[in-house]
Structures are given as structure tokens and as C-alpha cells.
Amino acid sequence: MNNSRTATEQLDKLGKRLQEVIESRKTLENHYERDVTTLSHFISRLSAACRGMDDELDHRLNKLRAELQKKPDIELVTPLFDEISLLLQQQGFKLQQQLRSTQEGVLSAGTSLQKLKGLTKEQRDELRALVSGADGPSASLNKYLPLLLQLLGLYERVVQTGNAAKNSAGEAITAKTTSGNTADLDETREELINLLSVVDFNGTAANAIQAVRQQLITGCTQRELLNYCMQIIRLIVKSISEERKSAQSFLAELNDALGSVHKVISESLTENNSANLAKNKVTASLQQSVSKLSMSVEKASHIDQLKTEVKHHVGEILLAIEKRQKMDTDEHLKLETNLKELQSRLHEMEKEAASYKKKLAEQKFKSLQDALTRLPNRTAFEERLELEYKRWQRYGTELTIAVADIDHFKRINDNYGHIAGDKTLQVIANMLQKALRDTDFVCRFGGEEFVIIFPQTTLSQVQEPLEIARKKIKQIPFKFRNEDISISISIGAAGFTQKSDTTLSVFERADRALYKAKEQGRDVVVLDEQR
């Protein structure tokens, strides 16, 4: 009887041990789920930081973030890791391919210049170095390539002007251009000055660009203008190369980080599968031992035989439980080690990505801002107008645009210099912002022209604020070279009123209204009355 009680007590203890194992397993699974959730959050933040680098990469990263929000089995998203890793490798090659079309333009301009007679050996060497230095692709195509192409076109026009002057005059280019080409040279120089006031560089490049701009303002010969173009293009090529290296370095680090993530996850999955197989074997052995124990209790005819068999089976069960506990502990420690390693790597990469994202945001902000007046530039205007236009189409809200132009601005540059002209632009830009509402979008469209977008405002409603702005600008006490002068602006405005209206058609109507203001003597506001 005592022996039966002992066997029962041992079975109770065994049941408690089994319950402890089950609870331990649940705890381990909870830890595993928590760690996987943490990993998913890190991956989501990392993928969000990489947004905007490539359309296909964005698509895959968006898909990865969507899958991670569902908290799936890691095995289901492992193929996505492979695809993203491959896309990151391909991104470096895409950056190189995107500049090939521009290289043809560079080589074409370089070939044209090399055929020009009258260039010195130093200039030819500089031109050859410039063309060879433009071999590498750029990681900031949207920022630099349009500017580079425009400068190359300007470069070729300078050459064509020089050839025309030389052929018509029948003599070599001198320090002073002929009177017939002075107007063309001044126009080209003015265009280059305006172009340099729009672009924004950092560090030593900014100082170099400012020095070139000052030289252009003081005047130059055709050959000097040619040299300035070469200096500017050289600075752009250098900036392109630096941006490319920075982007390639970040992509390489990102690829390594995702490779590490993939490796750790793959190893964890492999180890988890192996551990599950081993634990299944232990569980089967444990169940078999319990079954044998139960059968022995039922079949035993003597107490001594029962004691021996119970002791033997209980020993097997205890060994199986200890083995199972050790496997759970080892698995948890290994998983914890892998996740800590992964978390550390992701944390480092997250900081890198945040830094790079901040840099990209700053570059995008600068690309949408006029460097001289700090107003939004033409690109920013086009983006904002497209947004307001879609809102007008969808909701039928009122929308009006106005074009403002500084009267006789060329006289200011000619009589008082470009520094005075720059100051005039800055002061008027500031006054326009102050005179109009915060909801009105003011930008520098180019040269001495400004454009204002009036959301949720009818054409008749803009008359008063535009008149106020016009009067305030005329009251500004400008003083150049100890001479007090008054500066005025002319304004034309047009509204979106018909379903057939487009951004281009309404802008053209506002521009025509501006010309009417000029024809009426300037310093007036003219509204387009088309219905």
C-alpha cells in the first residue's frame, strides 16, 4: 500500500515537472514573439529611411513594411529580403547608367570646343581634363544634370558667338568683342549670372561660385567668359563625383546591413528548425516513457517489480525533462545572442540612414529654394500649382495666380550694378511675403519675375491684397550710391474659372495681363477678365 502511495506521489511530481516545462516553453515562445516584433519594427524604420532612392526599391520596401505589420512567419518574408538585397546591389549600377545619356552631350560640347581655333594649349588641356573627368555617373541626377546640360548649351553658344565674330571680322578674338557681338556677350553673361544666383553649393564650392559670379558682374571678355564656364562645369563635375561616392557608400552599408539581417534570420530559422526536431524527439521519448510507466503499473503483480520499473521509467522521464529544459535554455540564449547582434547592427544602420535621409531632405529643400531670395523657386511653384490645380478640379475650390515683374529692373543693374540688383530682388521678395497672407504662395519665377498662387481666392478678391503689396513696394526707400530711387512692380492676375482651364492656359492669361499693365504705364495691377 505504501509502495502504491509512493508511485502516486512520484507521478504527481512528474506531472508538476511537465507543467513547469510547458510553462517554460510558453514563456520562451512569448520572448521569441516579442523579439521578432522588435526586429520587425527596426526593419520597418530602416526601410522607411531608405524611401525615395529608387521606385522599384520603394515598392519592395513598402511591401515588406506591409507584410511586417501583419506579424507573419519570418519564413514568409525571407524571399523579400533576397529581392531587396539584389535591388540594392543593382542600384549602384543604375546610378552609373543614368549619366550615360548626359555624357554624350558633354563629349559633343567638348568636341566642338576642341575644334575651335584660337584656344591656348592650357585651355585645350583643361578642356581635355574636363571631358575625361565627366566619365563617372552621378548619384544626384535630379539636382545637377539639368544645370550641367544648360551650362553645356551655354558653353556651345559662347563658342558659336566667337566663331561668328571671327569669321565676320576676319581677325582673331581680342580682349574686347566687336560692337556687333557685345549685346550677345552681355546677354550670355547675364544669363550665367542669373543661373548662378539660383544654384546653391556648400563649402569651398560655394566660395568658388561666388567668386566667379563677382567676376562676371564686373564684366569680362568672351575668352574670360569661356574660362568661367569651364570653372563652373569643373565644380559641378566635382560635386557630382562627391555625391556619387556618398550615395554608393551608403548603399554599400545598407546592403551589408540587410545581408547581416538575412544571415542572422536564416541562421535563426535553421537553428529553430533543428531545435524543434530535437525537441520533438525528446517529447516523443517522454511520452513513450510515460506510456511504459502506465503499462508497468497496470501489469505489475509484485510490489518489488513495480518499484523497480517505476524507478527506471521515472529516471528516463527526468532525464528527458532535463534534456528538454537544456535545449530550451540553449535555444533561448542563442536566439537572444543573435537578436542582440542584429539589434546592434540595425541601430547603427538606423543612425546612418537617418543622417543620410536628413541630408537628402536638406538637398531637396535647397533644390526647391531660390538661393538669392530664399523664396521657393520655379520648380517648387510648378509642384505647388499642380497640387492646387488638382484640388480645384476635384473640389471646385477657387484658385487664382498672379505674375509680378519689377519695372525697369535692367536699368538698376546697368546704372548701379548687379549687387544693387540682387539687393532689390531680396527686399522686394521679403516685402511680397509680408504684404500677402500666409496661405498665399510666393515664389521667384526667374530673373525679376515673381509668381503668387492664391488658394481658395477668386480673381476679384486678389485685387485688394495685390494693390496693397504694390503700394508697399513703391514706398520702400531704396538708396544706391547716395541716390534715392523709387522702384515699382507691375502685376497681372488670372483665375481658374472654366473646366477647360489648364495651369498653362491660366498662367499665359496672367502673363498677358502683366503685359497690359506694362502697356498702361507700369506700376499697376491688371486682372484678366476672361470668363
TrEMBL record:
Q: Gene3D superfamilies, alphabetically?
A: 3.30.70.270
Q: Which CDD domains match?
A: GGDEF
The organism sits in which domain of life?
Bacteria
What sequence ranges are listed for the domain GGDEF?
397-530
Catalysed reaction per UniProt? 2 GTP = 3',3'-c-di-GMP + 2 diphosphate
SMART domains, per database record = GGDEF
The UniProt keywords, alphabetically, are: Coiled coil
Give the protein's cofactors: Mg(2+)
GO molecular function terms noted in the UniProt entry = diguanylate cyclase activity
Which Enzyme Commission numbers does its entry carry?
Answer: 2.7.7.65
The membrane-spanning stretches of this chain are none
Q: Which residues form a coiled coil?
A: 332-366
Q: What PANTHER family does this protein map onto?
A: DIGUANYLATE CYCLASE DGCM-RELATED, REGULATORY COMPONENTS OF SENSORY TRANSDUCTION SYSTEM
State the protein's name: diguanylate cyclase
From which source organism is this entry? Pseudidiomarina planktonica
What are the leading ranks of the lineage? Bacteria, Pseudomonadati, Pseudomonadota, Gammaproteobacteria, Alteromonadales
